[in-house]
Predict the structure.
Amino acid sequence: MGKRSAFRRRRQDYYPTPRGPVTALRGHLPRGVRFAEPCAGDGRLIDHLRAEIGAVCGYAGDVFPRRGDILWRDALALDEAALRSCDVIVTNPPWKRELLHEMIDRFSALRPTWLLFDADWPHTRQSSALMLRCAAVVPVGRVKWIARSKHTGKDNCCWYQFTADPRATVMHARAA
């Protein structure tokens, strides 16, 4: 799924979030936090956040939902009405830059937002304007996106927290 892969990408960039990256959010999200998951897919991230942090999902949507409790919704249509009971947005978004950048811009204007994607992104020119909204970076390393694969992905990943008005970006150390 990364830039150095010769494999065809999955439809809708569907790569279910494994449990590993979610453990990195412990200590960054308060227990019982209410969150929205706008790219919910099959709901694995929702389940992992519930199990790891005791988080409560107040909204779940996807353009191609793979579970009955997930609404058929475009993430870019996310609005205040959908988020009325949510403190934050947490998702593993598509990594296609045009879509990712639009999501960062939209989501961070609505709520503090945690997004999981590749670690190289802040080192590119295209990230410069959006990095002004980045409040925190939490590295997770390489992720095993394909459950039965012997290998992890080729790209290191991070959780990025975006807000409407961050004071500065805090780069956290990777957990041991």
In short: The first helix runs from residue 19 to 23. The first strand starts at residue 34 and ends at 37. The beta strands are 34-37, 56-62, 71-72, 88-91, 113-118, 134-142, 156-162, 170-171.
